[in-house]
Amino acid sequence: MQTATPVQRKVPRPRADALRNRERILTAAQEMFVEHGPEVPLDEVARRAGVGNATVYRNFPDRDALVREVVCSVMDRMAGAAEVALARGGDPFAALERFVHVAADQRISALCPMVSTTFDQHHPDLEAARERVEGLVGEIMERARTAGQLRSDVDVGDLLVAVAQLSRPPAGTRCLGGDRFTHRHLQLFLDGLRAPARSVLPGTAITVEDLRRPCDQLS
């Protein structure tokens, strides 16, 4: 008596229109979170994305899932920008500059607060995305440092804090209206990273481990 060979069932791939809808939802959500914060009504996200409410909830069962995916997708784009900067080769400091300006365009400054206030910041997806970005940024900085172009008293945390702070619109200005200042001030910051250093920085270099410590442990 022969045993029947089990049939291998193929898992259906998402349809192209379903993938497009998901991307439209993520794009709309990122825009609205930047403009209004994470509490924006999800039906407003659906309206901007041009989809129905049911489509939003079919892709993201709750607000936490949507916010987390937006933050992870932003970090994935930052990682992609870092990989492109590394792959191009050439001048190491120019690669660092390219990454910083692309990263600022992702509006990570508006999304960072949501990581600690909106959902579990230790979610595996978020930690994986964050570690990927941190590792790639560290590689970009190390190349510039080895080439003698990056001052020795800065670390990955310094760069990430600066990108977040300098891409945040000044108090009292419209969110989108402050964008014209961002790249100007980021370039001033980048010029200050060049070696040889012209001043001694107070304190010590900020590491990624420092960024994860509670504020009362940073003194």
From TrEMBL:
UniProt DNA-binding region: 41-60
Entry keyword annotation includes DNA-binding: yes
One of the record's GO molecular function terms: DNA-binding transcription factor activity
Keywords: DNA-binding, Transcription, Transcription regulation
PROSITE patterns the record matches: HTH_TETR_2 (PS50977)
Residue stretches making up the HTH tetR-type domain: 19-78
Species in which this protein is naturally found: Streptomyces griseoviridis
Gene3D superfamilies, per database record: Tetracycline Repressor, domain 2 (1.10.357.10)
InterPro entries: Homeodomain-like_sf (IPR009057), HTH-type_TetR-like_transc_reg (IPR050109), HTH_TetR (IPR001647), Tet_transcr_reg_TetR-rel_C_sf (IPR036271), TetR_SbtR-like_C (IPR049445)
Record protein name field: TetR family transcriptional regulator
